[in-house]
Amino acid sequence: MFEIERKFLITSDKWRDSIFSKQRITQGYMTVDNEINSIRVRVIDKEAWITVKSAGELKRQEYDYRIPYPDACKMLASLARGNIIEKIRYRILIGEFIFEVDIFEGVNEGLCFAEIEMTREDEIIPLPDWIGEEVTHDHRYYGSYIGQNPYINWE
């Protein structure tokens, strides 16, 4: 399976007017070599997944599997490399498209950006006025980088 995703900075809080869901996410990376792949464990409420992603920017292979919640907690506590990432994800509906806005907490407090998954690389997405610079090709906005290089240390 492939994931096709674009990432953008946010220029205002106007996105908050269109929120239709909110979830707290905790995640950690078991591997952090984005030149090959990344392996992530993610917990949302009492549900958990392990995800393997290939290297790449706009289009990457992605394999996502549910795992038992207690196993995920043990993996995050003992196997995750770097910092555990804590964020709140807001889902925003704009026309037929769903944008996800991630607001980070902890050592990444102050970091926020929007993502949108697409069905094709050439798909035209209408961008709302609160969307700013595209950062899809900037490795700093990938989870495995953020876990190793907390936002509080960015210059």
UniProtKB/TrEMBL annotation:
Signal peptide: none annotated. Residues 1-148 form the CYTH domain. SMART domains: CYTH. Pfam families: CYTH. This is CYTH domain-containing protein. It comes from Rahnella perminowiae.
